What does this fold into?
Amino acid sequence: MSFEINHTHDAKARSWVESTNRSGSDFPIQNLPCAVFRRRHSAEAWRGGIAIGDEVVDLAALSQKGLLQGLAATATAACSQSTLNAFFDMGPSAWQALRHGMFRLLGLDANTEQQRTFAECLVPQSGVEYAVPVQIGDYSDYYTSIYHAENIGKLAGLNTATPNFKWIPLAYHGRASSIGVSGQKFRRPLGQAKAPDAQAPMLQPTQKLDYELELAIYVGKSNQLGQPVSVSDAEQHIFGIGLLNDWSARDIQFWEMAPLGPFLGKSFATTISPWIVSLEALAPFRLPFERPARDPQPLPYLDAKANRAAGAIEITLEVWLGSSKQRVQGVPTKRVSSTSFRHQYWTIAQMLAHHTINGCNLTIGDVLGTGTVSGPTVSEAGALIELALNGAAPVELATGEKRSFLEDGDTVALRGFCEKPGFARIGLGECLGEVLPALDVQRGY
Ligand code: CA
It folds into this structure.
């Protein structure tokens, strides 16, 4: 919608960086996602990087080499900072200039001297650590999968999604301070929960810890307070997307949620992937936004020709579960579900347009979670509570262990990628998190 398909999407393009030629790499030359990194266990300054094959392009180092000119050079210099906010602030023309500059220098057309100079700026991904890539001002989390909404609606005692679901891209305000980057470990949260047959609630470690498979949408351009963004212009305000795990304590959540929405059942941790894939890189994977004729059509402020033509995105999304026992036994983690972002009821442009229709101002670096991505069948469920049918059909791990909810030591890895005949496969990388034991509620905390 925002970006046309161009030479940077050419499936035949190759890089002189050898590891990009491995089939199945998430990071071929057609992808070029951004992160913030430094060498692991070092005191180096955090700075921006771009993924190519198994390497990270150190943008702070590259900006000293004089290989780029004009807007691409200025954009690279902006990425030398510890967050990508200043780079985002330069706008879509700078985002494109950096991508196209990288594509030229990493391609086979770069001369030997350029390749040798550029190679001094490559750092193996195996030796780096990542930071949250932007200064996140606010985090809003949506609820845009009709299948997830129907499944949760049934668990909440309704027969289906709430009546407003088909009219509003629903969302609540999340907590930005507890967002961590892939590799995040967090304690099983304490909270107040009430069993259905109990007289009173208790404070205890959650017994129903869950994950939610989501995408993070990164706001790249602000709008002024009082000035809505139209659905046609919405994607001009989005830099790109990453993976997001909205960890959820279902017992705490369901006890607290009426009447004001989720709070402590969600705010203890949210994990994001390090890499942000630009909307330009996703251009080949756009799909029409379609709404079944029997459903209400979007109100005019959520409707636009461009959104109907290409508002949706085909992104395969997967959940992989592991456990302490699985790591001890040295067996691989198991993929427990796979679905596609194409099933969402609302598009990212509609989410952003709705967020601002009342005049609410989004700022650079804000994160919009898409809500759990669940497809039409149980095996496409994006949360364990749905996948295990609320405990009725526990999920089996690679070790034979069964899970209705997460246990201490469990790991959840989200992965995503885009594939389409005639185009290079691009990946979103991984979003990994691990559950640590709770604090001892009896001994104090
Ligand atoms: Ca969520």
In short: The two ends are 50 Å apart (CA to CA). The chain has a mean pLDDT of 96. Residues 92-106 form the longest helix (15 residues). Residues 141, 212, 214, 246, 369, 371-372 surround calcium ion (CB under 6 Å).
